[in-house]
Amino acid sequence: MVDTHTHILPALDDGAQSMEQSLQMVRIAVKDGIRQMIATPHVIGGLYENKKEDILTAVAQLNTRLQEEGIPLTILPGAEYRLEPDLAQRLKGGELLTLNESGRYLLVELPDTFLPDFTADVLYQIQLAGVTPIIAHPERNIVLSQEPAQLAAFIGRGMAIQVTTGSVRGRFGQQAQKTSRHLIKEGLVHIVASDAHSPSGRTPRLEVTRQLISELYGPETSRILLQDNPRRICQGQELINPPPVQQSFWNQLRKVWTRKKA
């Protein structure tokens, strides 16, 4: 599997704080079946001023250490950019790092508590630059979790959605869980990733969530969200739109009864 959203690089943001923590996270990922991770440190004006060159250097250093340790995993470059008014201009100026430097996808983070007035315009300007915005964990944005139709409109304009494993499992509260599962059921999610920050708590694990999504929404949906589309992101290829999940009342009742008996 490929984890497309991780804070694995040491001492660049609120993720891993040392090389040792990065190595601990990588070992957890390998044990979980992950063989590639995209490093996506925060880039937020006035808080985490990570430059493209600094991220690329940190990725190269971590990969060298992994080779020395004999760890079978590769770190790919990327970043998680906070939505800011000048984001599209910085992209056009060559300042930003697309996922795996493919020039195809940019991971964009929204604030948790509101939706900026310039959101739609900035995302559209990114598209005009030939890059597809991937909106990171929108299920954790209060406005979009209460008004998923706005999110569906973004998707209708060709943008992509990444949901966090912890949201699907309820780590970020009932509203985020409800929203993430609704979005998956409606076929509105393109990727599920860990958004891992540490060796404990928010760890780089995908397998439990992969199994849960397979159980709730079918193996095809699980494969698209956690295997096919993550690989396509790394290769700069067009993403697959997962189909909405059709579940009869009796099929849902059977699953609930089965879980109660277990």
Quick rundown:
By secondary structure, the chain is of the alpha/beta class. The chain has helices at 19-31, 52-69, 87-92, 119-128, 142-146, 148-156, 165-168, 174-185, 207-217, 219-235, 249-261; strands at 2-6, 36-39, 42-43, 74-77, 80-82, 105-109, 132-136, 160-164, 191-193. The longest helix is centred in the first third of the chain and has 18 residues, at 52-69.
Task: Describe what this molecule looks like in 3D.
With 262 residues, this protein is an alpha/beta fold. The protein has a domain at 79-261: Metal-dependent hydrolases (TIM Barrel, Alpha-Beta Barrel), CATH 3.20.20. Helices cover 45% and strands 14% of the residues. It has eleven helices and nine strands. The strands form two sheets. Strands 3-5-6-7-8-9 form a six-stranded parallel β-sheet. Strand 1, helix 1 and strand 2 form a beta-alpha-beta unit.
